[in-house]
User: What shape does this take?
Amino acid sequence: MFWRYAKGSSLAALVRDLLRIFRQLLVVFDGDVEQSLEYLDEIARRYRLWRDDFGPEDFRRLLEERGEAAQVRGALRLTPKGERALRRQMLQEVFAKVVKGGAGEHRTPEPGGAGEPGDETRGYEFGDPYDALDTNRTLQNWLQRTGGGGGHIEENDLEVREREHHASCATVLLIDVSHSMTLYGEDRITPAKRVALALTELIQTRYPKDTIDVVLFGDEAKRVPLHRLPYITNGPFHTNTRAGLIAAQEILKRRKSANRQIIMLTDGKPSAIHEEGRLYKNPFGLDRKVVAKTLDEAARCRRRGIPITTFMLTADPYLRGFVETFTETNRGRAYFAESNRLEGFVLVDFLRNRRRRVR
Assistant: This one.
């Protein structure tokens, strides 16, 4: 990345870009404000972004004045406002990668009695609410019939505007936090976190009737509160995909939405399951026992009407073979995408899924 500021560039433009870089660093460094500020200082010095009237200490004060960070035991920490700002930026950046005219809104294709007015109109039918009448089309029909020569508007002149029905959706986002998510210099956990932050902000701000839960799976599976998303990271874990699917089903069982779905981000073959209270593991992956138990959960999700969309973050042909079998078992979807294209794919598919109603 390179920023060049002409002489006289506004301080506001500089601050805006510094905030954007800082929030990107927060995702990379697991929400650590001090470490992100340290790297921001290095970047700013390398590209001569600091000004005589605005330096690193000024930026620190700015974060506190904006309420995005606060002193906690001698170090700056993110505040709830800072966490919201981070989610908002991730949503803006992720949406920028979605092709215009692609997925569109996540509305069902079926008209309903409530919701926002749509673009389509039809003739009035008994029982239609009068506030759905399209005045312009109704007057056009009357003029066409009478030639403007007078007379009352008749029932056949009336047209109503369809209302688009919004079906609620419950989503569980499964994120693989096994050791391979940052193996051999490949960083796959950062784009996965960006997706989680963006989807959370999308649902909370635009689809308040929807729900989203995030479950991390490594040796174990655990649900994480949404406000903890900036701080998640991977560890020295195996890939217990089965545990993640079980946890997701338990969450979705409590949701009353018409649609339920699981989105899974993973780069590793299942390599562990719980058996008789202990962790049975095979670090090489594709152990027959582990695969069979994992496929059992995929089938159980299918029987419960829960489709699974899997995003494979590596080109491993063995993992691809497993994912294809897994997807066939669940009758879900699979995307074999590079991690740098992950964000757009996830949001496009989320929006498309929301156009369907699971019956």
Remarks:
- Residues 1-7, 99-116 have pLDDT under 50 and may be disordered.
- The first strand starts at residue 69 and ends at 72.
- Residues 11-28 form the longest helix (18 residues).
